[in-house]
Amino acid sequence: MKKIKLKPGKEESVKRHHPWIFSGAIATIEEPIEEGEPVEVLTSKGDKIASGHYQIGSIAVRLLEFGDKEITEDLYSRRLQSAFEMRKALNLIRPDNNCYRLVHGEGDFLPGLVVDIYGDTAVVQAHSPGMHLERMKIADALITLPHANIRNVYYKSDTTLPYKAHLDPTNEYLIGKYDGCIALENGLQFNIDWLKGQKTGFFIDQRENRRLLESYSGGREVLNMFCYTGGFSVYALRGNAKRVVSVDSSSKAIELTEANVNINFPEDSRHSAIAEDAFKYLDSVEKGEFDLLVLDPPAFAKHRNALKNGLIGYRKLNLKGFEKIRKGGIMFTFSCSQVVTKEMFRLAVFTAAAQSGRKVRILHQLTQPADHPVDISHPEGEYLKGLVLYVE
Ligand code: SAH
């Protein structure tokens, strides 16, 4: 295995089991080396302290083992088994719930890998060249995972791998074939289209937050902004909302939302869906028309250099929400940008509240669900932030 030697003092974060080595921490790299190759990481004194996958970029190594442990053949089976045990402990695998995140990268000690399960299909996303090269081993480990009943493995990494890596990932079935399914989430049905949908086909990370919204929906008029597959809308309808309007700028998302509403609540006249830009739609809304608002936009800041504009975006969006919501209304507002911290998001939302002149109180502070765990050695893994606000 090729060796990578760190600069003096740069082993400290590795000792705390942080799973990344930044390129600036590296003194020497044994050449020739290919992207994705397994490497050993040495201290400046030459002692082995970790092993992982090498890649070109700011994060140069994603670590899979610490100390002098080898990366063994059964690594994926062991880690998948432990990830599966945890999901069972979370009671996510039930007759009325068959979709969940099985692997959440660093949070499941498999940096660079995401696996979402929909019924008997696993949708695999590689975020690192190392995991891309290992995709067949991972697929085999998924299929043989005891009691998980996984039959098909679809690989979908065309948008998640580093652009410069020239890996040319093809979206394809690695094992089996099954084009889309109706998955169950908390007893509700959702069409999942991993072939054409965003990410792995569905945003599993809002499951618990959708359930909370359901509990507040009774008798309310709900605006689900950035609805995508209509998850929040379907829960609101089950929660006896008086009216639900779903809005997304993508007409494909509107079709998905309508299909998902129809399988759960056929011909329900309480629901309508509109393809429109969020800001334009909010401008057209009458003040006080809605008393339950969901604002779940795409990441406004995908990188650190987009942070300033991203925060302005969150402030402006939330300001529109505060201006339009009825007195006594409840607003669910989210940010899924990893580079936006909880504090930054709160500041953007609180600034918007102050600018609107509305009296606002925090009811809940939300985050990602337990099947998207955060390794305490890697606090960066916490990405989803949400606030539920009572607006007078
Ligand atoms: N709330 C959804 C996930 C939202 S993903 C869920 O629970 O599954 C973000 C969505 O925002 C995408 O579907 C995208 O099409 C939509 N979007 C992006 N920019 C938009 C804009 N300016 N106006 C309205 N929708 C937009």
Explain this structure to me?
The chain is an alpha/beta fold. It contains 10 helices and 20 strands. The protein has helices spanning 12-15, 75-89, 129-133, 135-143, 207-216, 231-238, 251-264, 278-284, 307-324, 342-356; strands spanning 2-6, 20-22, 26-29, 38-42, 48-54, 59-66, 99-104, 113-118, 121-126, 152-155, 172-175, 181-185, 188-192, 221-225, 243-248, 271-275, 292-295, 329-335, 360-367, 385-391. α6 (231-238) runs parallel beside α7 (251-264). Bound molecules: S-adenosyl-L-homocysteine. S-adenosyl-L-homocysteine binds at residues 203, 206, 226-229, 231-232, 248-250, 253, 277-278, 296-298. Residues 203, 206, 226-229, 231-232, 248-250, 253, 277-278, 296-298 line the site of S-adenosyl-L-homocysteine.
Précis, in short:
The protein is α/β, with parallel strands linked by helices and 392 residues long. The protein contains ten helices and 20 strands. Helix 5 (207-216) packs parallel to helix 6, helix 6 (231-238) runs parallel beside helix 7 (251-264) and helix 8 (278-284) packs parallel to helix 9.
Strand order of the largest sheet: 16-15-14-17-18-20-19
Which structural class should the secondary elements be placed in? alpha/beta
Contiguous uncertain segments of 5+ residues:
none
Q: Which distinct ligands sit in these coordinates?
A: S-adenosyl-L-homocysteine
Instruction: Output the number of helix runs.
Output: 10
Any idea what the radius of gyration is? 22 Å
Task: Give me the count of strands.
Answer: 20
Based on Cα principal axes, name the global outline.
globular
Q: Which range does the strand content fall in?
A: 25-35%
What's the helical proportion of residues? 25-40%
Average pLDDT across residues? 96
What separation lies between the terminal Cα atoms? 62 Å
Characterize the biggest β-sheet: 7 strands, mixed
Order of helices and strands: EHEEEEEHEEEHHEEEEHEHEHEHEHEHEE
